[in-house]
C-alpha cells in the first residue's frame, strides 16, 4: 500500500521538473538572448559538422593510414588544450567580448574553408590550429556575452540553457553531415563553412548594433 502511495508522488515530482524546464524557456527574454543563442548554434554546428566524419574525410581525400588519422586527432586535442590556456590573454587583449566573438567566428569560417579545400596534409595541419583556437575563444566569449546580459539570480540557468544549444547542434549534426557527404566529399566542410559564415555575419550585426546603439 505504501508503494502505491509513494509512486504518484515521484511522478508528480518528475512532472514538476519537466514543467520547470518549459516554464523557464517561456520566461527567457528572447529579445535579449535570441541573437547570441542563434550565433552559438551556428558556430557550434559548423565545427561539429566538419569533425563528425573527420576520419572518413581524411581517408577519402588523402588516403592516409589510420595511424596518421590518429595523429591528426591527437594533434587537435593538444592544440585545443593549449588554446584553453590562451583564451584569458585573448580576452584581456580585446576587452570586448562581442568584438572577440566576431573576429573568432571569422577565423573559424576561414579555417573551415581552408580545411575543405586543403590540397595536402601539411595545409590541413596548419588550418587545424586556427580552428581549435577559434572554437576555444568562441566558447569563452559567447559565454561572457550571455552572462553579461542576464540577471545575477538567473546566471546558472541561462548558462545551462546556452550550453544545451551545443547539444542540440550535436544531435542534428550526424544526419546533416551524412546527407551532405553523400552529395559531395566536400559537403560537410562546405556546410560547416556556410554555417560559420552565417554565425560570423550575425556576430558582426550584433557588434554593429551595439556600436550604433544610443547611450
Automatic annotation (TrEMBL):
Note the InterPro entries from the entry: MFS, MFS_trans_sf
The UniProt keyword set, sorted, is:
Membrane, Transmembrane, Transmembrane helix
Gene name of the record: MFSD9_2
Database matches in SUPFAM superfamilies:
MFS general substrate transporter
Q: Carries keyword Acyltransferase?
A: no
* Source organism of this protein record: Halocaridina rubra
Q: Name one Pfam family in it.
A: MFS_1
Q: What is this protein called?
A: Transporter activity protein
The yes or no answer to whether the keyword GTP-binding is present is: no
